[in-house]
Design goal:
By secondary structure, the chain is of the alpha+beta class. Strands 3-4-5-6-7-1-2-8-9 form a 9-stranded antiparallel beta sheet.
Length: 175
């Protein structure tokens, strides 16, 4: 369950819709705390920490290394002053999700993401197969990563896993 939530949250970290690349600034390397609240969902509020460098931040921004560009019929990012507005429509299997995200703040210190999504066709983990969801996320930079952390580490519910290791597990095995 924790692994599914981390993967889902990794997709929501910056863009609000899982698994597609966005035209957003890179976050400052170091340790980030993310607090996510999901309305209209059975998912509880989540707090996690992420240790990132430029490479792992880019990995998270491209949807956890997924190749979902072809799954999204719409991926619009608008820079309106210091605010990012992101609209997307993506289909994964029988489900289509249309999302509208507003990102405000600084990728050097603290930012917030407010996402409204409408899903049709199939449920996501903890969500109804159809209907609207609303997610708010607050992110803040805490400082350098701890001595026992490495880029890609995600800490939630007292557990630590590394997204780079998870990506390697997802990769097809060579014969």
């Amino acid at each position: 369950m924790v692994r599914r939530l981390v993967v889902l949250a990794a997709g929501f970290v910056i863009g609000g819709s899982p698994a597609f690349a966005l035209d957003v600034p890179a976050r400052k390397p170091g340790l980030w705390e993310l607090k996510m609240a999901f309305e209209n969902s059975r998912l509880p509020e989540r707090v996690m920490q992420q240790c990132i460098d430029a490479a792992t931040d880019k990995l998270m921004n491209t949807g956890f290394g997924g190749g979902a560009q072809e799954n999204c019929s719409k991926q619009d990012t608008q820079h309106i002053g210091s605010t990012l507005v992101i609209d997307s429509t993506c289909t994964f299997g029988p489900a289509t999700t249309t999302s509208h995200a507003v990102v405000t703040g600084s990728f050097d210190s603290a930012y917030s993401v407010d996402v409204t999504s409408t899903r049709q066709g199939a449920p996501a983990p903890g969500m109804a197969p159809t209907g609207s969801t609303h997610m708010k996320m607050e992110a803040k930079w805490l400082g350098p990563c701890a001595a026992d952390q490495k880029p890609g580490d995600v800490i939630t519910d007292g557990r630590k896993m590394n997204l780079l290791d998870l990506q390697k597990m997802r990769a097809p095995k060579e014969p």
